[in-house]
Specification:
Number of helices: 2
Mean pLDDT: 78
Strand content: 25-35%
Largest sheet: 3 strands, antiparallel
Number of domains: 1
């Protein structure tokens, strides 16, 4: 898994961020969280901010997986010949 955090919108008492996670092992996964952190000390970012955002972002991602885990999704796979597929594509109206 590859991840990064881009810090944006630096203001006096806050900073915006965008957290990205991407799978590197063949599972199609792209995950993005945008947020804003209110700072107690507006002089500098906390040293552990990236670590805290990483932990929080991964917890949110796992929670989303858990919420969707119990849902049943039906996928219908219709096998057709190449000729039949080409006929269907030609008959599509634009």
């Amino acid at each position: 898994m590859d991840w990064k955090i881009d810090y944006t919108n630096f203001e006096k008492n806050s900073v915006g961020y965008t957290f990205y996670v991407e799978s590197l092992n063949g599972i199609p996964l792209n995950f993005k969280i945008e947020g804003k952190v209110v700072l107690e000390n507006s002089e500098k970012l906390p040293e552990n901010l990236s670590e805290v955002l990483l932990d929080s972002g991964l917890k949110i991602m796992v929670e989303l997986f858990n919420v969707t885990r119990d849902r049943t999704i039906s996928v219908q796979n219709e096998l057709v010949s190449i000729d039949e597929f080409q006929r269907k594509v030609k008959n599509l109206e634009v």
